[in-house]
Amino acid sequence: MGAQWSAGVCLAMREAGPRLLVTYLLITGLGEGIFATLAAPFVADVLGGGGDAYGLFLSVQAVGGIAGGLLVAAHPGNVSPRALLGWGTVVFGLLDLALFTYPLVVTALWPAFVLIAAAGVPAAAAMAGLTTLAQTVTGDEHRGRLFGILVSAQAATGLCGMALAGVLGDVAGIVPTLCVHAAGLIAAGLLVRFGARR
């Protein structure tokens, strides 16, 4: 088991494609940990919503994700996996940034539902691109190891993001900390789109 893990790490560090995907998931995993921790405080303290608002917030996010999955499935092969992952993540980050900052100028609750649903569409596109790209950047003999490294990278930084959210949320505030998540998505998407291919 240890030898296989070492081989997977070596693969991720040696080849540009796997290394890019690991870097992507390290960045976005950190942000997902932040969002998972601060989503409820964002709805309650920033948007002024109750438990029902938070439930609806999560529900419309899922609806957006389903719509995005159906949209991508309806147009297979029209966009490369790398473009799908890169631009999908950038648009996801921009919509999240709008979601987190609009309460600074508008006090209504409904834009949050519209924006979180809309963000689910590029998020689903990015996930489709990630899954496809991960299957094509290495051969059959290394694919399982690569997926293990990718899942581990995302899980590890997700935990770090949760811890970071607890600290930054108190020091900097909920909105600025969530903006770190949005900025990370934008940066990761641009990295995938314009990073080294080999």
Task: For this entry, give a set of tags.
mainly alpha, transmembrane transporter activity, MFS_trans_sf, 198 residues, Growth Hormone, Chain: A, MFS transporter, membrane, MFS
Compute the number of strand runs. Answer: 0
Q: Would you give the CATH topology? A: Growth Hormone, Chain: A
Indicate the low-confidence ranges by residue numbers: none
Find the CATH superfamily. Answer: MFS general substrate transporter like domains
Q: What does the overall shape look like?
A: globular
In CATH terms, what is the architecture?
Answer: Up-down Bundle
Oligomer: single chain
Overall number of domains: 1
> Helix amount, in percent?
over 70%
Folded structure, characterized:
- This protein is mainly α and 198 residues long.
- The chain has one domain: Up-down Bundle (Growth Hormone, Chain: A).
- 85% of the residues lie in helices and 0% in strands.
- The protein contains seven helices and no strands.
- The radius of gyration is 17 Å and the shape is globular.
- It starts with a helix and ends with a helix.
- The model has no long low-confidence stretch (mean pLDDT 86).
